Amino acid sequence: MEEGESLRGSRVLVVDDEPYIRKLLAFKLRTAGLVPVEAEDGETALASALAEPPDAVLLDVSLSPGLTGFDVLRRLKEDPRTASIPVVFLTARVRPEERATGLGLGAARFLTKPFSTKALLEELGRVLAAARGETAKGGPQPLGGGPPEIPV
């Protein structure tokens, strides 16, 4: 089996209140062989994660209305059914204290927008592999494939 191949088919919950970003991420994940599940707000994300726990979560800090990404992460980590799901923040927020808050609450990574979809897929591949206890020389191969790189 090719490195990173075992990650294909992984379910990734994409939580962003901006439809364009959510749809772009879902498209890139699908193209990489992953199964995206979309949520436009924090309550929907939590309900989805409890109904059918994903293998990972891509989460924006700024969600409206209602819960913030920090609230969602806190609730995921407090619930034994979802506590082990790795969460990657993908946000326009760049202040060091926000990064520290996200990582302190248990986020696996804190990536900022604009982002490279290639770099995002590489990081997500590492997070998924680590969650499954897999290690590979230099980390898993990128999950990529499909259309050319789109900086977002």
Overall SS class: alpha/beta
**What is the CATH class name?**
Alpha Beta
Q: What's the pLDDT, averaged over the residues?
A: 85
Helix content: 25-40%
Number of helices: 5
**Strand-residue fraction?**
15-25%
Total discrete domains: 1
Question: Per CATH, which architecture?
Answer: 3-Layer(aba) Sandwich
How would you describe this structure to a colleague?
By secondary structure, the chain is α/β, with parallel strands linked by helices. The protein has one domain: Rossmann fold. 38% of the residues lie in helices and 15% in strands. It has 5 helices and 5 strands. It has helices at 19-31, 42-51, 69-78, 96-104, 117-131; strands spanning 11-15, 35-39, 56-59, 87-91, 109-112. It has a 5-stranded parallel beta sheet, sandwiched between helices.
Short overview:
The chain has 152 residues and is α/β, with parallel strands linked by helices. It has one domain (9-129): Rossmann fold (3-Layer(aba) Sandwich). Helices cover 38% and strands 15% of the residues.
List keywords for this structure.
152 residues, alpha/beta, globular, Rossmann fold
SSE layout:
Blueprint: E1 11-15, H1 19-31, E2 35-39, H2 42-51, E3 56-59, H3 69-78, E4 87-91, H4 96-104, E5 109-112, H5 117-131
Parallel strand pairs: 1-2, 1-3, 3-4, 4-5
Helix pairs in contact: 2-3
